[in-house]
Amino acid sequence: MSKKARFDVRLVVPPVATGALILGIWYFVSYVILDPKRRFLLRPPHEVWSVGFANGDNFSEMMEGLLATSKTAFWGLLTAILLGFLLAVIMSQAKFVERAIFPYAVVLQAIPILAIVPLIGFWFGYGFMPRVFICVIIALFPIIVNTLFGLLSAEQGLHDLLTLHNTNRVTRLRKLMFPAALPAVFAGLRISAGLSVIGAIVGDFYFGQGEVGIGQLLKRYAARLDGEQLLAAVIVSSGLGVLVFTFFGWLANRVVGKWAGESRGA
């Protein structure tokens, strides 16, 4: 077996084995632990597949809800990225600005989102923008913290070298601080991407109005005790979070790796 084939086996076998173990435990709980009268609490995997995914009407309903949730999560994440980058850059340029803003960013992170969702609905209504606002609240802090940490992680010796050459702030930020911050920035993006999806689902779940997303479907299936569709919707929601997390991981490897290669070449 070639070295590449052995690497592929080591890469594929562990998650496949773990997935098979999870399915085995799932079947065991459904058929052995649960009484048949209580099996609606955890339907077996094949029933979840046949009702939630193989049924065209049910699957189409979930895909429409997934699309609505994805749009909310996308705009919430985009807004959080722009706002988080702006605040991090401003804080990185002056210590007193960081001391003035950072405590409120921590307070924003500490706010229990479930407690303020009803308030957001009262104040701003139950449409698209309030849901985006919830995503921003949840996703903003990791972007601020990781970007600020990355911007401040550049070596002091390089800062001193640029000072000797009378480099202005914009050039220093572009040539030194931003390249040094890239790994931390993408770490924050991967965290915030998943949090934005959670925010979109939470807002849709508690608002219960407007365009139907995954959150409203979860509430609907739970109210009707549709165990198969409920689990299918949970799997779809998790899949969306995994997808955006994987995308930013791939993007980080492309961008950070390319930047590092150009730096070595220079």
From TrEMBL:
UniProt topology in membrane: Multi-pass membrane protein
Family matches, as Pfam families: BPD_transp_1
Primary localization: membrane
Gene3D superfamilies assigned to the protein according to its UniProt record, in alphabetical order: MetI-like
Entry-linked CDD domains: TM_PBP2
Membrane-spanning ranges: 12-34, 72-90, 102-125, 131-155, 176-202, 230-252
Annotated organism of origin: freshwater metagenome
SUPFAM superfamilies for this protein: MetI-like (SSF161098)
Cited PANTHER family: ABC TRANSPORTER PERMEASE PROTEIN, ALKANE SULFONATE ABC TRANSPORTER-RELATED, MEMBRANE SUBUNIT
InterPro entries: MetI-like, MetI-like_sf
Gene Ontology biological process: transmembrane transport
Subcellular location: Cell membrane
Protein name (Swiss-Prot/TrEMBL): Unannotated protein
GO annotation, cellular component aspect: plasma membrane
Domain (ABC transmembrane type-1): residue spans on this chain: 66-249
UniProt KW Transmembrane keyword: yes
Keywords: Cell membrane, Membrane, Transmembrane, Transmembrane helix, Transport
PROSITE patterns reported in the protein's UniProt record: ABC_TM1
Signal peptide from the UniProt entry: none
